[in-house]
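Example (one chain per record):
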Amino acid sequence: MVSLAIAGYPYFELSRVDIDREGPHYSVDMIRILRGKYNRSHNSRAGYLTVENTFFILGADSLIDLPTWHKPNHLLELCQLAVVNRTDYKPDLAQLTQILPELPKKIHWVSTPTLSISATDLRKKLAVGADVGDELTDSVKMYILEHGLYQKACSISYHPPGMFE
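Predicted structure:
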């Protein structure tokens, strides 16, 4: 579905890092693997991915759960965080900083047009047959229909925050 969603955007590329490997998938491992692959495949003139120029993009709603992720301190050692504001989420940075002292130095707030959209909410809407309007591209909607994803009869299972990070 990602490849369908980014079709036509030449600056985006689908990575198969988490698709082609077994075991639990954590964000910290993905960043480490991507940096290693990129740095091995590019010559020094092209530059290297470093902690200063590697950004992990996440929503402010996900930032709240960062302390529960697998090795959050190590993630902060590998990259910067590009945090996109979410309409209804105001992270308590003071509380997060008590748990992750390096966090304030790593956050780069990204101003974008505010969109009230989240993957979790989309899955819930699709599961109950609600209209998602223009929140998904036509090609992604078609894929979901053709493959019977998120049907009314399906149950939505709960996964603790950070389980797939």
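Caption: The longest strand covers residues 55-59.
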